[in-house]
From TrEMBL:
Residues 31-45 have a biased composition (Polar residues). This is Alpha-amylase. It comes from the Bacteria. Residues 1-28 form the signal peptide. It comes from Paenibacillus terricola. The keyword Zinc does not apply.
Amino acid sequence: MKLQKKHAKRWIHTGAAALLLSSFLAGCGDSSDNTASEQPSPATDKQQEAVGTAKNTTAGWGAVDEQPSTVYYELFVRSFADSNDDGIGDLNGVTAKLDYLASLGVGGIWLMPITESPSYHGYDTTDYKKVEPDYGTLDDLKRLVDEAHKRGIKVIMDLVVNHTSSEHPWFKEALTNPSSPYRSWYHFAAADEKVQTDSAAGADSAWHGSGDNRYLSIFWGGMPDLNFDNPKVREAMIDAGQFWLDQGIDGFRLDAAKHIYGDYASTIHTKEVQDLNQAWWQEFRAGLIQKKPDVYLVGEVWDSTSVIAPLLNHALDSGFNFDLAAKLLSGADREQDSDIAFSLSRAYGAYEHASAGAFVDAPFLSNHDQTRVMTALNGNVEHARMAAAMLLTMPGNPFIYYGEELGLTGSKPDERLREPMPWTASLNDSDDTRWIEPMFAKGGDVSVEREEADSGSLLQWYKTLIQWRNEEKALHDGGIDSFKLGDEKGLSAYIRMTVDERVLVVHNLSSKPLQAVISDQTAYGAFSTIVHTTDSSAALEKHSLSLPPYSTVIIK
C-alpha cells in the first residue's frame, strides 16, 4: 500500500448557512486536522492572499467572501481543429480558433492531455515534458499560449501524475530490471506476496502482471500507478509541473486527484488516505508557486464534500462540482427547482472552513467522461438552454465542454463523447478533424457555421449568458444565497452578490408562463428592474414578475 507523510477562494453567506456549516462539520471526521498540516509560506501563495478577505458590506447584506471567476472551455485537441489537413486536431488548429473562443466570451481553456502518449486520449503519458507529436511541437504550444494571452484567455492543461503509460521508459526499465532505480518508482509485488485487489477506480483487480512482476495499476494494466512514497517521484512530478509553467501555462486540471493514495475501494475514504492525498497536493502546490504564485489548480475529485474539502487546504483551488452538475441537469430535465443555493451553502460552508476562504467552485454540466448534455436531456433544446442558464449564473469558474454550446450529442463508449467539433455543416472544411468517423457529430444545423448565422441558436444563447456574466460583477465575482418565490416548482431563484452589488436571478424552467410576487422587504432590499432577459416578453410591474416559458431574467 502507498504510505505516508503529512505535509487552503471565496463565498458569501448570511444567517442560515452558519447553522448548516456547524452541523455539517460536526459529521466530518477528517476536518479537525486540516489546519495542522505543514503549509507553504503565505507570502508566496496567491491562494493565501484570499484568506480573510471577507468584508462586511455597508449595503446591509452581511459579510461577503467573493469568488472572482473565469469561464473555462474544455477541449480535446485531437477533435477540435486541424491546421495541416491530416485529419487530426492540433495545437495550431486551436490557435486558429482562438477568435471563436473569444467571441464566445470564455476567459480560459483547458487542454485535455497534450503530452506524448500511445493512446488517442493521452491519459497515459510516455514523456511528461514532450508534446504529443500528433499535436505539434513545444513551439506550437508557446505560440498558442501567447496568442491566447493576447486575447485575455488563460490556458490550463491536463496533468496526469497518478500513473504513467506502461510504455513509459521508466516503467519499461522497472519491469525488465528488478535492480533498476525506477523499480521503486512503481509498486511491485512478489509472486507470494498477499495484496489487496479491490481497485478504487473500478478495474477488475488493482494488480496486473504475473510472477514477481505484479504491479499496481488501478485503472487498467496500461496505466501503472506511480509510488508517491518515493521522494524522487514527487520531485519528478513537481518538476514536470514547473516545466509547463515555464512554457506559459496558467495552471492544471489534475486527473484522478483522490487516487494518489486512494488505490483500494475498501480504504479510499479512510482518514489516513485522505491525509496522505492532502499532503501530496500541498507539496505539489508549494513547488509550483515558486514558479507562478497565481497558478490555478482544479482537481478531478468525483466524491463527497468531506473528501473534497481537505484538498482545498493550501492544495487545490477548486474541485469539479459533480453533485451540482447532477442537480442542474435534473432540474432542467424535470422542469423543477432543485434549491441549488441551499445545497451549495452546505458544501461551501465546508470548503470555506477547510480553505480559510480560499476556494473557488468549478461548476459544469458534463465532461469528456460523461454523457453529453443534449443526450442526457433527451434532445430537448429548451432543457439544454435552461441547464446552461443555471450553470452560467453559478458562482465560481464554470466549465463548458467543447460542442456543448452547439448541442452536440454523445454517449459511451468514451470515443463517442469526444467526436470531432463540427465547424461546418458539411464537415468538409480543412478545419474539421477526421480522426474518427462521427456517429453523433454529423454537422448540419448542429455546427458552428449554421449556429453563428442563426440568432436563435443554442450557440447564441451561450454567448448571451456569458456576456451577462462578464458584464455583471455580481454574476462574475459574487457568492450565492437562497431567495424564495412562493411555491411554484417551475421557478428557480437565487441571489448573486458581491460586497457592493447584488442581483436576483430567476429562471422559469417550465413550458408554461409563470408569475411570482417579489417582496421589497428582503435582506437584499428591493428588486425593481429587469436588466437582462432571454425573452423580451418578461415583465416586472411593481411587485409582480411574469416570465414566459423557458426563460431567465436578471433583476436589480
